[in-house]
Amino acid sequence: MDSLAPPLRSAALLRPSLRERLRGIAICISFANLCFVYQWSKLSSRHLEYFRYPPVDPGYLMAQAAGVIGQTLLLALVFYLISGNAKLSAAPRAQWLIRTIFMVSLFYPFHVLQTESGLFGNNNWLAWALLAAWTVAVVRYHRQLFRPVCSTVLLLLTLLPLEVGTLALQVIRPAYVEPPLAGRLAAAPNRPRVLWVIFDELDYQWGFTKRPASVKMPEFDRLALESFSATQARRAARSTMAAIPALFTGTPLSKVAVRPPDDLALTFQAGRQTALFSSVPNIFSEARKLGFNSGIAGWYEPYCRLLANSVVSCAWSPAQSNISPDMDRYWAWMVYLFRLQLYNFSRLAGLNSTVPTDPYGGRADRMNQIEEYETIASAASRAVADAGLDFVYLHWPVPHRFGIYDRRTERIVPSGTYFDNLQLADRTLGDLRSAMERVGLWDRTTVVVSADHSARADFESGPFIENLAPPPESPVVPFFVKLAGQRQGMRYDAAFNACLTKDMLLAIMRGEVDTPTSLAAWLEKNRQRIPLGR
Fold first, then answer.
1. Which of 10, 117, 245, 401 stands 20 to 30 A from 317 (CA)?
2. Each residue of 103-146: pLDDT tens digit?
3. CA 72 to CA 62: how far, in whole Å?
């Protein structure tokens, strides 16, 4: 391949040798593979195993591997055709241009890795600064850099067989078996009953202070009038992956890493110490020590694996978007990967709010989320009406994307916006209340309703928020506590970290908090114990 071969010195050398061609092809394949290295890393690291029902389907893994390899070869062919034009590469300036573009383009796979891993957070400007610095270095030191860069890319071709081999190990690994749940404890007649409801990405501004007039949320408005309503509760973390374990352990976390198939590695903000989730006391293990029978119906996290030894009833639905739609269908997976590359390129260009190539939101994603919602709804309706459960936790996939509701027709459909999902969250709250009222459990149950995190400006934008101008991103999340027997609302305006929820729930379970006044006093005493979330 001319542009990636040694410099041409005469017309006689216009046609590269077989060795040079093979070297150029190998470099193109390696470069293309680097563009998909994050997809390989997710497959080979067992990351997806954490988010899926066991066991992992070998056919599913084979389709994924074939899709990534197919896309890699297609992209490598494009690179080869661009760089292999003999007429262009015979001209020194054209050859210099092609080689410069090649070296500068190597920043792209690095950008994909840092974006997907969150290495720089949301600092897109930092990516641009690094790209500018790399471009200047390439232009200035073109001759010195070209050969070592090519050699490095060629060396990285060894990643491809390593990736395929690591993936093959998953096929022969023994299937994971879901652990049995804990046995039911003896009932106590006067034990408090608690329901904790998390609506994913329920935003305080969009839902309450800056709610569009077209969005009707009568159930939340009714709840606010008869509950303890906190106006400055700060999210435990900015993402679900970090927020849920932080809420469960009552401790702010700086990092959470998956330890498939059934654990998490937590890094605590205080002291930067690391521990496995399974080794840290959590709200469910503490509730069981108090004699509470706990039940879960939740989305995203594999709750029934994480908490099997502490709960007596459990249902969970994986976030299918972590798996990607139709991954067991080869051509659908190929199209998905192509759209993913367009989307990642648009994010580098800063167009992620407007470009219509985002692969996370097609009909397959929405149909999956409808299935997830309905799975949780079925389990939740049984759990909240089960008088034998003393503590019930529910985690809903709305109003988080994707839109699955039409608030005008009041029907669940594979379309919609954040505000449609807001109204679905309101309908869901009403359904829960009705299910509990039918069996006489609403009044005697303390109901806590909140969110794992608020709306994020880099996720919720453009058509999903009906092209409205979003308010500045806020760490404040809704926080309602309807204590057992409570009829009169009370507003609380002091700021506190939602990580306090765990200890607050335990205080309610122990009977230390049973009125709005005692709850306000408890928060005043404890709210400065945990730094506010950001």
1. 117
2. 888 887 777 666 665 565 555 677 778 888 988 998 888 888 98
3. 15
